[in-house]
Amino acid sequence: MFIKKQRLLTPGPTPLYPPALHAMMASDIHHRTEDFRKAYRSCLADLKEVMGTSHDVLMFAASGTGAMDASVSNLFSRGDKVIVCVAGKFGERWAEIAKAYGLDANVITVPYGQVVSPAQVEAALQAEPATKGVFVQASETSTGAAHNVEAMGKAIAKTGAIFIVDAITGLGTMPLDIDNWGLDVVIGGSQKAFMIPPGLAFMSVSPKAWKLAETSTLPHFYFNLKKEKKSGDAGESSWTPATSLILALAEALKYVKQIGMADLVGNAQLLALAMRTAAQKLGLELFAAGSPGSSVTAIKAPAGLDSGIIVKEFRSRFGSIIANGQGSMKGQIFRVAHLGYFDFADLFALIAGLEIILNANGHTVPYGSGVAAAQEIYANAAIPAAAVK
After folding, report:
1. What average pLDDT does range 107-126 have in this prediction?
2. Is 318 strand, coil or helix?
3. How do the domains of the chain map onto residue ranges?
4. For the domain bounded by 18-259, which CATH number is listed?
């Protein structure tokens, strides 16, 4: 009651993997030495392995938005026709970037909580065969919804367009078969499922996407994919790198490889299932119930209660930080994350805290009912497996 440990329960930044944090202490290393080149090459190789791709992987000292920007400025020209899928705040960001660079964007917009369907993308491609690119979020973190990027990718692969996927919260929370699904550019960020602080962005680039880079005429300097590819092949970054974060990422990637990417995804999916089940047990309505993702669960606040109150009470009562809704959903939904260094003990505590907050604000629920629902999910998944051993 008097000691409150701060707990990050947001979809980014996420809790830090302790050995990665310790690795940052060795950052008094020069970035143009063979010792650092070894770490840099290791990161690029391990990123390719955990992302499960044979495509080139590049890395930048930037937030994920930097890689989003780079995917436009390096691969397109002013006036190019593109399709932008908007199903939330981060889809809107794709539209803003496309507009900033003068692309001719067909923006397919659906209400928050819904997703753009593969059929909508296919129809848009058929209506405009000259389309050069399609942009989407794998996981739209502002609403908790997940797009069907597999079906989208297979449809886009039949055309001359490339498929650019913001997987900043999708990597590590949902299956993404980059090469076989036709995902030409896949973007990730360090502060999500990779369990280290913000500041690194990375992206895979397919041969099909590299061909567009040959004809792009948009200006770019710092975010130069060709330059970064050449530097990366030599074990270096083009510019001064975020040394401490790269050392941390190298350590975190060892952990991800140890777990296995499939089990990292499975961990997020199981936590998300338990959270959805617990929320419904507490009489709460899920947001994006039709296409829920596993990076974050978005939950509607009870009638008459601003979700901001729930967010503030988590912080004041328990030192825990969850996320409010974004954009038009601010005050209406709250969001809790499941990506990266989260386990069931985190979830049990979060749900127990939620029960207390709901009761304190006029939404009466039986104490322990939500926790019990999550415990049952855990027990069904874990206890039989343990018994076999």
Report:
1. 97
2. helix
3. 7-13+260-388, 18-259
4. 3.40.640.10
Strand order in the sheet with 185-189: 56-61, 200-205, 185-189, 162-166, 133-137, 81-86, 104-109
Arithmetic mean of pLDDT, 136-163: 97
- Tell which phi-psi region holds residue 260, choosing left (phi > 0), alpha (psi between -120 and 50) or beta: left
Confidence label for 388 from pLDDT (cuts 50, 70 and 90): very low
Q: CA 283 to CA 164: how far, in whole Å?
A: 38
- The DSSP output letter for 286 is B
Q: In this structure, how many other beta carbons lie within 10 angstroms of the beta carbon of residue 270?
A: 21
Query: How is domain 7-13+260-388 classified at the architecture level of CATH?
Result: Alpha-Beta Complex (3.90)
Q: Tell me the CA end-to-end span of the chain in Å, nearest whole number.
A: 39
Amino acid occupying residue 131: T
Contact (CB, 8 A) for 58 and 232? yes
One fold for both 7-13+260-388 and 18-259?
no
pLDDT above 60 for 246: yes
In whole angstroms, what is the distance from residue 184 CA to residue 270 CA?
A: 28
Task: Confirm if 169 and 21 have CB atoms less than 8 A apart.
Answer: no
Instruction: Kindly state the helix (H) or strand (E) to which residue 56 belongs, with its residue range.
Output: strand 56-61
Confidence class for position 327, pLDDT limits 50, 70, 90: confident
The pLDDT, as a whole number, for residue 389 is 47
Indicate the pTM of the whole model: 0.96
